[in-house]
Amino acid sequence: MPIQLDPRLSLVASFVRQGSVLADIGTDHAYLPAYLVETGRCPRAVASDLRPGPLENAKETVMQAGLADSIDTVLSDGLDALPALCADDVVLAGMGGILIAELLSRAAWLKTPAVRIIAQPMSHAEDVRFWFYENGFTIDREACVFDKHRGYVALAAHYSGEKTVITPALPYGGLLFGQRDPAALRFLERQKARLQKRRDALLKAGSDPAEAQRLTAVLEDFERRMYP
Ligand SMILES: C[S@@+](CC[C@H](N)C(=O)[O-])C[C@H]1O[C@@H](n2cnc3c(N)ncnc32)[C@H](O)[C@@H]1O
Description:
By secondary structure, the protein is of the alpha/beta class. It is built from eight helices and seven strands.
């Protein structure tokens, strides 16, 4: 039976370019590479994971799908064990944003304009955007999807060498700002509510006035960007 992806991984898959060699970091069951190779979007893929258990899951999927000639499975902490330029499109999905930013920072070869990075952070998307902006990457595309009331965001970026001017709210919304699609608006509203809740808790506790002030500036900028 062909691999079926859930809405979150379908969104990630839609960001992968036709004909690209894929590296899927933190692949677990390797559903994404198996789907992309099976459907002909990618001719080849590397599916890697930090832990032997998930990598066994990946091998099982690859074997069952009869894709062992096209998908390599590699045990690796982030991209550490992957050769430079082994892929055109590099996916880091289903992990926290802080971890994704750390894994990206250890792979210097990603600073190549031809390489597309596709990130799908489960939390702290602001850390991923901030890392891209700070390190000369341009975010080309962002979209979100809801599944069972939970929102997911995916971003695609490439190295351009350009530094982005980072306004207070930009890392919290990125290219979602200005989108009128209902999923993006819902995602941003939730992000704003989380920021407000954190700021209000800090104000009430009086524990970290500098952070409360920073969050107030983020919220003001957020409002301007969301409803220009
Ligand atoms: C929740 S699963 C996500 C699987 C798949 N990418 C997805 O989006 O559905 C997270 C996977 O990341 C792997 N992982 C965590 N830290 C990692 C690291 N430093 N390097 C590579 N993989 C890692 C875990 O072992 C786990 O299999």
